[in-house]
Design a protein that fits this description.
The protein is an alpha+beta fold. It folds into two domains: about 10-140, GMP Synthetase, Chain A, domain 3; about 150-210, Roll (SH3 type barrels), CATH 2.30.30. The chain is built from four helices and ten strands. The protein has helices at about 50-70, 100, 110-130, 150-155, and strands at about 10-15, 25, 75-80, 85-95, 135-140, 160-170, 175-185, 190-195, 195-200, 205-210. A hairpin with a 2-residue loop joins strand 6 (about 160-170) and strand 7. Helix 1 (about 50-70) packs across helix 3 (about 110-130). The longest helix is centred in the N-terminal third of the chain and has 18 residues, at about 50-70. The two termini are about 40 Å apart. Residues about 1-10, about 15-50 and about 95-105 have low confidence and may be disordered.
Length: about 210
Amino acid sequence: MNNEWAFWPAFCFLGGFGPAGFGFFEVAPGTGCAPPSSCEPRDKALAVSQSPTDRLGAVRDIAERVARSHGLELFDVQFRRESIGWMLRIVIDRVGSPAAEHTGDSGENVTVSDCATVSTDVSAILDAEITFEQHYTLEVSSPGLDRPLRGLDDFVRFVGRRVRIVTNELVDGQRFVSGRIADVDDGTIVIEDGKTTRRVPGTAVARAQLEVEI
């Protein structure tokens, strides 16, 4: 029996088949928690009729359809080999009201129940429609409090939150900017940090990530 440990700054569920039947394992935020010994990682070893790219695209379509049916959004899908084996990782999100999110209280608004529901539904459809040649574990989680920002819409959504930005060109002589998102003005992100204000062109953002505020 394989016990899994996971570290994730959000809700996480692993689906598995074992002596107790199908189960979900909650991973506590920011800690490593092993699944109950009565459950095992979900294994599949079936013939494959699709290319890896086609298969991942099909999984993405399924996950997106399921997420949308529950009022959620698909944030990311990954299928890759890790130290514990092959992981099919589905990340879901919910777009809340900007007014609530600006307070910092709703940056993580995907619930444990959301992850469990999506995992159950996606697993059932995968069993019927998709085959894999690798044994894998299905994981459904939220983006986390330190979630990446992947476009100007995300910066607009999280105005008022602190962010770290790495740029692909110099901004005021540097390639790293951190501070609070003050505004998004005509494709430019306005970052305030104390008395310093920097304007970062959206096209200059290589990657960006929210900071966890306690």
